[in-house]
């Protein structure tokens, strides 16, 4: 199987578009990496939001530009 990698020009263009659009990212992640995830997205030009409450999360999902899910340390209450 051959891996299809983006070239440097394609990567730079994708990053430029990402930064230009400044997406509002709904982050459903664990406590271990919340700060790292938020800081990384901020550095890339996104607007991260860690919305946990069920009712708020469903409302926020309707306005978010993107969804990031990390279930690395999923717990029963958050499942």
UniProtKB/TrEMBL annotation:
One Pfam family here: HK
Catalytic activity: 5-(2-hydroxyethyl)-4-methylthiazole + ATP = 4-methyl-5-(2-phosphooxyethyl)-thiazole + ADP + H(+)
Record EC number: 2.7.1.50
Top-rank EC class of the record's enzyme: transferase
UniProt entry keywords in alphabetical sequence: ATP-binding, Kinase, Magnesium, Metal-binding, Nucleotide-binding, Thiamine biosynthesis, Transferase
Pathway(s) annotated for this protein in UniProt: Cofactor biosynthesis; thiamine diphosphate biosynthesis; 4-methyl-5-(2-phosphoethyl)-thiazole from 5-(2-hydroxyethyl)-4-methylthiazole: step 1/1
Molecular function terms from GO: ATP binding; hydroxyethylthiazole kinase activity; magnesium ion binding
Cofactor requirement: Mg(2+)
GO biological process: thiamine biosynthetic process; thiamine diphosphate biosynthetic process
Name this protein carries in UniProt: hydroxyethylthiazole kinase
Lineage: Bacteria, Pseudomonadati, Pseudomonadota, Gammaproteobacteria, Enterobacterales
């Amino acid at each position: 199987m051959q891996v299809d990698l983006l070239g440097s020009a394609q990567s730079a263009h994708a990053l430029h578009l990402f930064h230009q659009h400044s997406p509002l990212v709904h982050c459903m992640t664990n406590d271990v990496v919340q700060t790292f995830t938020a800081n990384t997205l901020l550095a890339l030009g996104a607007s991260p939001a860690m919305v946990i409450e069920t009712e708020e999360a469903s409302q926020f999902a309707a306005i978010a530009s993107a969804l990031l899910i990390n279930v690395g340390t999923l717990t029963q209450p958050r499942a």
